[in-house]
Design brief:
With about 100 residues, the chain is an alpha+beta fold. The chain has helices at about 15-25, 60-65, 70-80; strands at about 1-10, 35-45, 50-55, 85-90, 90-95, 100.
Length: about 100
């Protein structure tokens, strides 16, 4: 699996409620996206940084999303260019399933 962490600085502080509303408005774009297993939307405590953690089946599938089109969408929506970091997911501890997964 591949984990992708995105991050962008917001031009103004977002409240938790405002962030939830914005995130819910974009969530349908990611539903059913090939290879995407899960997306976690993130907001910093001070409301000035947002981003997401994506869990992908493979890096190849993940790389398809983070194109110029996606970067433009995020920049237009949130007012700053996102950073995108790729990680190999080597081991996952899943306390809900009471297991460690390789």
């Amino acid at each position: 699996m591949t984990i992708v962490v995105t991050r962008f600085v917001l031009p103004a502080r977002l409240t938790t409620n405002d962030a939830k509303a914005i995130f819910l408005s974009t969530a349908p774009l990611y539903r059913g996206l090939r290879g995407l297993l899960r997306k976690h939307y993130l907001l910093s405590d001070d409301g000035l940084t947002a981003g997401a953690v994506y869990v992908w089946e493979s890096r190849a599938e993940a790389e398809k999303l983070y194109s110029g089109e996606w970067r433009r969408f995020v920049t237009d929506k949130y007012g700053s260019e996102p950073s995108v970091l790729f990680f190999d997911n080597l081991v996952t501890v899943d306390n809900m399933m009471d297991s460690a997964i390789l």
